[in-house]
Amino acid sequence: MKNIREHDAQHREPDAPGCAVPATAAEALAEGHPATRDRVARSILDHGPSSAADLASRLGLTPAAVRRHLDGLAAAGLVDAREQRVYGSRGRGRPAKVFALTDSGRSAFYQAYDQLAADALRWISDAAGGGKAGEEAVAAFARARLAKQGLKYQDALAAAAAGQRAEALAEALSADGYAATVRRVPPAAAAPAAPAGAQLCQHHCPVAHIAEQFPQLCEAETEVFSQLLGTHVQRLATIAHGDGVCTTYVPASGAAPSPAGAPGAVPTAGTSPIENGSSARRNLA
């Protein structure tokens, strides 16, 4: 965010008397307490929609301080408030209010962080000679990065029951800001006694804008999921490809994977499902 703040400071017109609302989204991040406001916005970016209480706990601030920053961000159109989505049964009372970044809020970060990441990956590709060699170099980087991330999840999955590993992975992903959930998929009508598979859904992707340019990131993530879960998995949709949710089909233990990935599901055009088990044999370490 430093580059954004410096750019705005150089080009900002004098504030009109009594103006309480910044004129642009970038100015909202620079106004008042820029470092703290950046942290609030960054925390929402990394962890997905968050309540004021969650942000206060995560950042070590008081709820009142967080709300002041949220008010400023909301006034500039950087965040908006919505009811928290509840999966499964919901208790009594109204759902908690959570704050999510708007497109303007995301763009303020993407200008600074996404361009740097894209430039770095493009440099890796060019340094390897471009073409197929460059693509493989980026893929090697993606595998190494995702393997390191997967190592953090191994203990959680090892402690989970065989039938609950998808849920354990979703919980670990959510802790890293992917807002992941699991939906159990009933068996096909032709085999009602067969165990149900699952769809692992990631409702937020911190690297979606980079993955649009470098699909190797999505492919490496799918490979790591296969390794962690110990089974063939199939990517059905990705946010980077324009879908609303990243969806991965996880077959039930011992079940033969369906060519379509799941009953009634159709793989998204342009995604790269894993059609063999070679990736599952790679070591995470």
Give the tags:
285 residues; alpha+beta; Arc Repressor Mutant, subunit A; 2 domains; four-stranded antiparallel β-sheet; two-stranded antiparallel sheet; 6 strands; 48% helix; disordered N terminus; disordered C terminus
Any low-confidence stretches, pLDDT <50, length ≥5?
A: 1-24, 26-32, 256-283
Radius of gyration: 21 Å
Structural class determined from secondary elements: alpha+beta
Q: What global shape is seen?
A: globular
Please trace the helix and strand order, writing H or E for each element.
Answer: HHHHHEEHHHEEHHEE
Strand % is 5-15%
Number of strands: 6
| Helix percent band | 40-55%
Mean pLDDT: 76
Helix count? 10
Tell me the strand order in the biggest sheet. 3-4-6-5
- Could you say how many structural domains there are in total? 2
Main beta sheet: 4 strands, antiparallel
Report how far apart the termini are.
33 Å
